[in-house]
TrEMBL record:
GO MF term (any one): transcription cis-regulatory region binding
Superkingdom to which the source organism belongs: Bacteria
InterPro entries, per the entry: Homeodomain-like_sf (IPR009057), HTH-type_TetR-like_transc_reg (IPR050109), HTH_TetR (IPR001647), MftR_C (IPR041347), Tet_transcr_reg_TetR-rel_C_sf (IPR036271)
Species per Swiss-Prot/TrEMBL record: Actinomadura rubrisoli
Coiled coil segments of this chain: none
Gene3D superfamilies tied to this protein: Homeodomain-like, Tetracycline Repressor, domain 2
Keywords: DNA-binding, Transcription, Transcription regulation
HTH tetR-type domain span: 28-88
Annotated protein name in UniProt: TetR family transcriptional regulator
Keyword Methyltransferase: no
DNA-binding region: 51-70
Amino acid sequence: MSTPLPEHPIDRLEDRIARLPLRERKKLKTRRAIQDHALRLFAKQGYDETTVEQIAAAAEISPSTFFRYFPTKEDVVVTDEYDPIMAELFRAQPAHLSPLEALRATCRAILPQMYEEDLEKITIRLRLTSSVPALRARTFESLREGTHAILKEMTAERAGRPVTDPEVEAFTWAVLGVMQAAMYQWLDGTPAEDLPDMVDHNLEFLGRGCPL
């Protein structure tokens, strides 16, 4: 039987953005506009067929401005704004929760919001990363450099272990693996559940030792 997890309130993303300094809000607005136009063009005419120049023109910026926000064309697909928010929520979970329980509670707080607000964007990004070889490679790099590094640090903190602990490393990749599995199962429509529920199911399954 799985352990009941406490609900943790989360500010809407727009509320968090509204509290940012004006300069940061403007930068984020531009970043989101670039990404929105890029994903729309990728969905319409294909990833390889879409150029940075076309994205820049659609967003009414210069190509050099594009590269100030996204170092590569691949990054406009694989980058999102949620890692820092997830880190904040994870660290705010009650101290008695294990790393996996804290992560489940964090995902239960933030994933429904992402699913509600960014469903189309999530769908396009997953389709692209599953079908474009260059994006699959960059997604792995981004996971290793970003999400994996943040999750490993948070796990080590909560478990009271060094970040270099091999078991912390193994746990982190196991978590990312079952989360990725949920995302691609959801994209394929098997089973037909909401993405937040599928992620939570897979994390709970991992917590039980993946019995088959």
